[in-house]
Amino acid sequence: MLIVTDLRKSFAGSSRAARVNAVDGVSFEVGEGEFFTLLGPSGCGKTTTLRAIAGLERADGGHISIAGRVVLDSATRVFVQPNHRGIGMVFQSYAIWPHMTVFENVAFPLRVQKSRLTSQDLRARVLDTLRVVHLEAIADRPATTLSGGQQQRLALARALVFEPVLMLLDEPLSNLDAKLRESMRFELKRLQKERNLTTIYVTHDQAEALALSTRVAVMNNGRIEQLGTPDEVYSRPTTAFVADFIGSANLLQGTVSHLTDGGAEVSTSHGPILARTARDVRAGEPCIIAIRPELIEVLRGGESEGINTRDGVVLAGVFTGQGVDYEVRVGEETLRCRTPASIRLDFGAPIRLRLPPEHCLVLPSNGRAAEAVSLAAWGDRAKA
Ligand code: ATP
């Protein structure tokens, strides 16, 4: 349905010499009916990619086709104008028209487009679309009287009324409060399934991406770091960046000592760790071990020592609702672990942690020091 090949876009930077490579050779394909998400931190190039697909940004290079039709080809200088690409778009600032009713907000784009619909057909089409987003009962209300969630649904209806072949959504839920955002996620998913809408979704919210998407492209510095199903990017990250950005991860620096059956033994500043490998590694290679806080076991009394156990001291903890996130000092490093709310650890108390080898993943070293995200920020992320 959508094919993006080697998309590139740079902008003039603050100094004359430096240009910002906002999108640096991005390629992906999206199948019909997929919910495909571009996920990454602020400034990684998600919006520029989406705007290039929409035709709102002229890419420097690359190829884009939508439903078998070439809309951009830098080699042959093809560039199809945004209004001829058959796409629907909803942005963060969805800007509904306050002086119009709900009905008119959806009807207006059709009228402007000078569509050949009779007024009866136009009315039927608008009401049909309002039904899909559950707003038909308040079609005659002024748009200003709508709640945030209703306004968001209205923005969706306005994009849907054109029956687009492709829907582009750029952080459409970010203006809503947490509760509403969650219910709108279900709405979006329902809509997308009901209409079999091919959707490209942009967000920096990993929870949103995992909940909604059929596949996720994790972006960093204008490139796709990993592309896969939510389960793949969460359970089998291929880089430390992805491991850390999706959920949260302890990243421990080490060096591969030797290979084992299905994994490797890695030496770290606090002793050896057995870990699994998802790619070829060689003895002597510097690496990073990623392990998620919730997969570290907290051993409480009597359990045996082992290669993947560590003694530590509890530094701090934050209650997240589902459990408690703790920072534990182990040697020179700080590890993060998570316990159910029923288990409380005393600050300053010695504890033993077990890092199950099957949950320790050897990733390529990217030169970044093993880092512990500050517990406050980490707590925020857990809540997000
Ligand atoms: P956010 O989540 O904050 O919107 P993003 O991942 O969508 O971020 P982009 O908006 O695509 O990122 O921006 C990618 C890079 O390109 C950033 O460094 C940004 O400052 C730069 N950039 C984007 N648009 C322009 C522009 N019109 N002029 C100059 N630089 C730009």
Note the topology.
Blueprint: E1 2-12, E2 19-30, E3 35-39, H1 46-54, E4 61-66, E5 69-73, E6 78-79, E7 87-90, H2 102-112, H3 119-132, H4 148-160, E8 166-170, H5 178-195, E9 198-203, H6 206-212, E10 215-220, E11 223-228, H7 230-235, H8 240-245, E12 250-260, E13 263-268, E14 271-277, E15 286-291, E16 297-299, E17 309-319, E18 323-330, E19 333-340, E20 350-354, E21 361-364, H9 375-383
Parallel strand pairs: 3-9, 3-10, 7-8, 8-9, 14-21
Antiparallel strand pairs: 1-2, 1-4, 4-5, 5-6, 10-11, 12-13, 12-15, 13-14, 15-21, 16-20, 17-18, 17-20, 18-19
Helix pairs in contact: 2-3, 2-4, 3-4
The site of adenosine-5'-triphosphate has 12 residues, from strand 2 and helix 1.
What is the C-alpha radius of gyration, as a whole number of Å? 25 Å
The molecules bound to the chains, other than polymers, are: adenosine-5'-triphosphate
How does the helix and strand content classify structurally? Answer: alpha+beta
In N-to-C order, the SSE pattern is EEEHEEEEHHHEHEHEEHHEEEEEEEEEEH
Question: Can you tell me the residue ranges where pLDDT is under 50 for at least 5 consecutive residues?
Answer: 367-384
Q: What is the straight-line distance between the termini?
A: 32 Å
**What spatial order of strands do you see in the largest sheet?**
7-8-9-3-10-11
Put simply, the count of helices is 9
> What is the overall shape?
globular
Helix content: 10-25%
The number of distinct β-strands equals 21
Indicate the proportion of strand residues. 35-45%
Description:
This protein has 384 residues and is of the alpha+beta class. It is built from nine helices and 21 strands. The protein has helices at residues 46-54, 102-112, 119-132, 148-160, 178-195, 206-212, 230-235, 240-245, 375-383, and strands spanning 2-12, 19-30, 35-39, 61-66, 69-73, 78-79, 87-90, 166-170, 198-203, 215-220, 223-228, 250-260, 263-268, 271-277, 286-291, 297-299, 309-319, 323-330, 333-340, 350-354, 361-364. It has a six-stranded mixed sheet, sandwiched between helices. A five-stranded antiparallel sheet has the order 2-1-4-5-6, with helices on one face. The chain has a five-stranded mixed beta barrel with strand order 12-13-14-21-15. The protein is globular and about 80 Å long. The two termini are 32 Å apart. Adenosine-5'-triphosphate binds at residues 11, 20, 22, 40, 42-48, 204.
